[in-house]
Amino acid sequence: MVPLAVEYPAWVGYMQRTTALPPPVIRDPTQPLVSIVVPSPNQGRFIGETLRSILDQRYPNLEVWVIDGGRTDETLAVLRTFADDERLHIVVGEDKGQADAINCGWARARGAIVAWLNSDDTYYPNAVATQVAALHAHPHAVAAYAGASYTDEQGRVLRMIAARPYHPLALLRLLIPMQPTVFLRREAVGRAGLLDCRLRYALDTAYWMQIARYGPFIATDTILTTYRLHTTSKTVAQFAGFYREWLQIAEESFAALPHLRPARRAVLANIYAAMANLEARRGQPPMALRYAGYAFTLAGWRPRLAKLPLALIDRLFDSNIADRIGSWWGWQARR
Fold first, then answer.
1. 220: which strand partners?
2. Which domain holds residue 93?
3. Are the beta carbons of 120 and 155 closer than 8 angstroms?
4. What's the whole-model pTM score?
C-alpha cells in the first residue's frame, strides 16, 4: 500500500507530505482499507463527536487523517484524547484552507476508498461498511453517496434529505450529493487530481464534476450521515460566497463539457432558484424575488421556485413548512 501522491502524477505536488508514514491498521485483509480525511478549521466543540463517529464504525480497516492548520481553539486538546488509537493520524500546522487540507490528507491515503468528513459532521454506525458494499456491488461507479440528516448545533435532527438519482446535471443543479455521504474510489481521485484550492465554498461541487468525468455515482437508499447547521458554518453564515462559486463552476463545466451545454439555461435557472429560496430563508424578500426573476427569465417556471412562498412564510411565522415539504418531495423524487 503506497500513498496516493506516490502513485498518481496529478498529485506529485504533495509527494513531500508522504514520507515516513506509519503503517495502516488492517484488521481484516479481505476488506479494502478506507482512508478518511478530517479538515479541522476551529471546530473543537464538534470534532470529538466527529472522530468518535468514525472510529466507532463497524468496519475493520480504517485510517483517519486529521489535518489541523494550527487552530486556536480547543481542537488540539480534544485530539490528544484520541492519541492511543493507532488508526488516527494528526498533522498540525500544514494546511492553507479546506481544499488544501483535504489534498494534504488524501496525498497520504493508502486506502482503496477515500472520503472526507468535515469536523462538525458525523457518520451513523454503518456508514463506511454500507458505502464500501455499494462500490463493491457496482464496480462501474466511481463514487457512492446516500441520504443525510440535517441537524442543529446540539445535534438534533431537523430534517432528512434523501439521495436522489444520479445524473451529471443533478450535480450542477445542487440536487446531489450530500457531501458527508460521498465515498470515492482511489483510482478516480488519483486521476481526477487535486481539489481546487482557489475555491472556499463550493469546492465539493467542483470536485464532483472532476470525478464524474471518470464514471457515474451510485446512490445508496438510506440515511448515513449528519450535516450540522450552526451559526459559524459556511453553509449558514456565508451564502454569497456559495452563490458566486456555484455559478462559476456551472459556467466552467459547460465550457469544458460541450455535451452538457444544451442544459445550461435550465441549470443556471435551478441555481438561481436555490439562491432565491436561501434569500427568503434569510428574510431578504427583495433579493429572493430578484433571483427568482433571473430563474424565470432563463428557463421559465422551475419546481424549486415552489418553495419560495413557503420559505417566506416560514421566515415570517417561524414555521417549518418548506423543509417538511422539501423533505417529502426529496423522498418521492428518489424513486
1. 146
2. 4-237
3. no
4. 0.92
